[in-house]
TrEMBL record:
PANTHER family: IMPORT ATP-BINDING PROTEIN, LIPOPROTEIN-RELEASING SYSTEM ATP-BINDING PROTEIN LOLD. It comes from Paracoccus homiensis. GO terms for biological process: lipoprotein localization to outer membrane; protein localization to outer membrane. The keyword ATP-binding applies. InterPro entries: AAA+_ATPase, ABC_transporter-like_ATP-bd, ABC_transporter-like_CS, ABC_transpr_LolD-like, MacB-like_ATP-bd, P-loop_NTPase. One of its GO terms (molecular function) is ATP hydrolysis activity. This is Lipoprotein-releasing system ATP-binding protein. GO terms for cellular component: membrane protein complex; plasma membrane. SMART domains: AAA (SM00382). Belongs to the ABC transporter superfamily. Macrolide exporter (TC 3.A.1.122) family.
Length: 222
């Protein structure tokens, strides 16, 4: 019943070259259905590499990546892209919203790319914006929103296609501490309401403590 299962995942950059960097060494990690897991790692320990592998943006040298029980290892790029679009939602430290589009349009566009009819996509965008308290900001462009508001729109976009798993890299790391706390509350409420599973990387131990389980990634001392 795991949404994500990594088994024996290893990754070395520059393998076979003069200066290989071993980043992940036989990592085992699971995220169960509905579980919210914190990923805490010192800088350089391979947190981004792990999220890229879980997000099907990179492949491990060895080991397996299972999404909802389906082995993603060795799938062709096209199938990985489809699985990424259908099963995964991403949130980064910076919102990466499209500046020339409104908040609502930023949530509609990924749904159109996934084949959702326009009317349904618009209704879902409106509902998601309401749930993060931004119904009144639907027509605003990112530059017209505060940092916390931009990040809440990015949460809605990540959930637009109803993913099975949310992958987040420092989702509130770009905000001041007070805003970060409030915006994190909004994210957790949204995740809990939708029964979503999540792997959330953070340096913030207070935020990590509020998740179901904490996974610590140690730096490999070469
Ligand atoms: P974190 O996100 O925990 O800071 P990363 O996963 O970004 O760590 O990187 C882990 C280590 O791998 C670092 O030492 C980094 O310099 C190295 N690294 C990351 N990407 C590459 C790459 N494409 N080529 C070579 N080394 C890399
Ligand atoms: P915060 O205190 O959350 O950082 P700001 O001081 O940046 O917020 O903005 C306060 C409010 O004004 C927010 O609701 C934001 O959406 C709105 N706002 C900020 N800049 C603009 C703008 N250029 N156009 C329209 N509304 C704006």
């Amino acid at each position: 019943n795991d949404v994500l299962q990594l088994t024996g995942v290893s990754k070395t950059y520059g393998k076979g070259g003069p200066a290989p960097v071993e980043v992940l060494s036989s990592i085992d990690l699971r995220v169960a259905r509905g579980e919210v897991v914190a990923l805490v790692a010192p800088s350089g320990a391979g947190k981004s590499t792990l999220l890229h592998i879980a997000g099907l943006l990179d492949t491990p040298d060895s080991g397996q990546v299972l999404l909802r029980g389906r082995d993603m290892t060795g799938l062709p790029d096209k199938a990985r892209t489809e699985a990424r679009r259908a099963e995964l939602g991403f949130i980064y430290q910076f919102h990466h919203l499209l500046p020339e589009f409104s908040a609502a349009e930023n949530i509609v566009l990924p749904q159109l790319a996934n084949g959702t009819p326009a009317r349904a996509a618009q209704a879902r965008a409106a509902d998601l914006l309401d749930r993060v308290g931004l119904g009144h900001r639907a027509a605003h462009r990112p530059a017209e929103l505060s940092g916390g508001e931009q990040q809440r729109v990015a949460f809605c976009r990540a959930l637009a296609n109803g993913p099975a798993l949310l992958l987040a890299d420092e989702p509130t790391g770009n905000l001041d501490p007070d805003t970060s706390d409030r915006v994190f509350d909004v994210l957790m409420a949204l995740v809990r309401e939708t029964g979503l599973s999540a792997l959330i990387a953070t340096h913030n131990h207070d935020l990590a403590a509020r998740m179901d389980r904490v996974i610590r990634l140690k730096e490999i001392v070469a």
